[in-house]
Amino acid sequence: MAHEVDALEHERPSWKPSPGLTVAVIDPVQPPELPPHRERATDKDPAVMKRAVRTVYTLFYLSVAASIWAVAAYMIFPIESGRIVDIRSNNLFIGLGIGTALLALGLGAIHWSKAVMSDKEYIEPRHATRGKDSTREAAVAVFEIADKESGFGRRVMIRNSLFAALAASIIPGVTLFRGLAPQNTAANPIAGQPVPLLSQTMWTEGAYLTHDPSGERIRAADVTLGSAVHVIPEELASLTHEEGYLEEKAKAIVLLMRLLPEDLNEAPEKADWSYQGIVAYSKVCTHVGCPVALYEQQTHHLLCPCHQSQFDVANGAAVIFGPAARPLPQLPITIDADGYLVAKSDFLEPVGPSFWERH
Asked: Measured between alpha carbons, how far is residue 247 from residues 10, 61, 79, 227 in Å?
């Protein structure tokens, strides 16, 4: 076989151009010609350049002012007041302040790069990159050239206004963190202590279970098999937003379900916490506090839509899937003389995320 291949190679004619024939050699990797450079107005007229520089640092200082306004709005419209007008104004004006600050910062940076920085066009040839001293020196030279072309080192107003805008843009976000750590006051001595705060809700002995949000009392006979009812304590329905309606509802909201009594596997110490298959569990997920509201009638599973934790209602709302660390707290219930559902006591453990219980 090797001899046959050699023979074919010898017999294959080699191509040669005919006498007088011109052969053109084309370089396929030749870079295209750059279009003629067109000078900007700022390159031609110093007055236009000065105006562009003023525009840039004005936008940066506008960003500073907007960041300061966002902090002022946080104080002028305190969300802790609970009033709807303050909550809406707080969200509106803080959002406008932060949005304007970031928009002005971005516009200033874009205008700086397009109108003020050097506009020279060049082709950078490819070369091998190695971590040698010469490479480091070249990197320093690049930074020096960039500083010279951008004018960062000599345009003091632009540089200082940029630094001020960047620093100020962080302040509104830092300020908003204050709302996550309420301080203890004489009126609310446990504001900074989450465990006792979440251990006390508006559920008390004899408190009626009512529909959310109407406040209509719930008769045990009206709770159908397989149903899931959103419940609040009767006293909560009469609260106004100024009196802390949202804060109390966030802790006290309950999901009421009815199963066949034989489907319930109740711990001996909780055997009298339900009534004829009707059970009540906190609606606040024990992972990060999302509302658990999706009930699967056939499997008796409760699903938290935020991070997919699942709880088995038939087995004490035990966690069967997801990141939740403990079962949902159960509200002990019974009925009054007229057959209406009432609470036997408050929750006997803190509601909400498990991390609040860490010391």
From this structure: 94, 39, 12, 27
